[in-house]
Specification:
mainly alpha
Length: 72
């Protein structure tokens, strides 16, 4: 029973991470579009984009770790 609960928790965590990754990708796309049409200055664009990319990178690392944990 313990293994089933852990599997569900792992599955829920993986789904949450995947959803967060998708949201961040959309935010990056929106930011890129705002910059392209000159609604945001270059300094704000660069700092905001760097923060979003950094967060996505951390999420992807967590997804990979979680996925490899499930493969064991």
């Amino acid at each position: 029973m313990e293994e089933i609960i852990n599997d569900k928790e792992d599955y829920d965590l993986l789904n949450t991470l995947e959803r967060r990754k998708s949201i961040l990708y959309r935010e990056i796309q929106y930011l890129d579009n705002e910059y392209f049409i000159d609604n945001i200055n270059v300094e704000d664009f660069n700092s905001s984009r760097a923060e979003l990319v950094s967060e996505v990178s951390k999420i992807i690392d967590q997804i990979n770790l979680q996925s490899s944990k499930q493969d064991i």
